[in-house]
UniProtKB/TrEMBL annotation:
SUPFAM superfamilies: Protein kinase-like (PK-like). GO terms for molecular function: ATP binding; protein serine/threonine kinase activity. The lineage of its organism: Eukaryota, Viridiplantae, Streptophyta, Embryophyta, Tracheophyta. It is found in: Cell membrane. Keywords: ATP-binding, Cell membrane, Kinase, Membrane, Nucleotide-binding, Serine/threonine-protein kinase, Transferase. Residues 211-264 are annotated as: Disordered. The keyword ATP-binding applies. Residues 215-254 have a biased composition (Low complexity). PROSITE patterns: PROTEIN_KINASE_DOM (PS50011), PROTEIN_KINASE_ST (PS00108). This is Protein kinase domain-containing protein. Residues 1-193 form the Protein kinase domain.
Amino acid sequence: MQYFSYLGGADPLSWAIRLKVAIGAARGLSFLHDAENQVIYRDFKASNILLDSEFNAKLSDFGLAKAGPTGDKTHVSTQVMGTHGYAAPEYIATGRLSAKADVYSFGVVLLELLTGRRALDKSKPGFEQNLVDWARPHLGDKRRLYRIMDTKLGGQYPKKGANAIASIASQCICGDAKLRPPMSQVLEELEQLQDAKYGAPSPLVDIRKASHAAPKSPMTSTPKSPLSSTPKSPMRAQPAARPSPRRSLGAAAPLAGYRTAQVH
């Protein structure tokens, strides 16, 4: 079952399951990055996360995976390919690929878990179409974070856990690739959240009280992203059923303005 087929439904995934999915995906990326022969996934996105009947996450579609740099090299150079809304800005601008590009993409998926929104959504107002641009100003402010949380959670999430996930996501989507944490560190921090019971259900967050305590956010319009492709639709929880064959609903497309390259 595809992960992103669960967002947006009447019965969405609980906070605990979202954290479980994030940990499973982080474990997969960490394994690839820390392998003796490093592998860069290059097209990490929500629709490439597959879930079994117990919501264990597995990565799929390695068609764009690339061998990582060797020796003292910090990156590999390649034509830009991937999925709009998930690709790291430095990779788009220069074609220089490193494992930190995957970290950026993982940060975008964390934002999707928090907000229930797609990485790119043209049905939203201009300044909200790009999830990273819209969410970033709220990630470092505990008083404003509730404004971007997925309303389908109904406030059923631990505030400390949500703040911690927001902090991790903020580090992952840092504009300076060198300042992004390695996936091994991201995985460790997520597992600590689970161990600390931040993945357990909590009393409803009082949205009305929070709205009185927090100043209104000055929402400003941001330039439209030149990346136009729309990711797959969000995920929604379904009753447990017999495990179905895992599948992937489509391969990544080359980013606008770049030619398709054969992956070596």
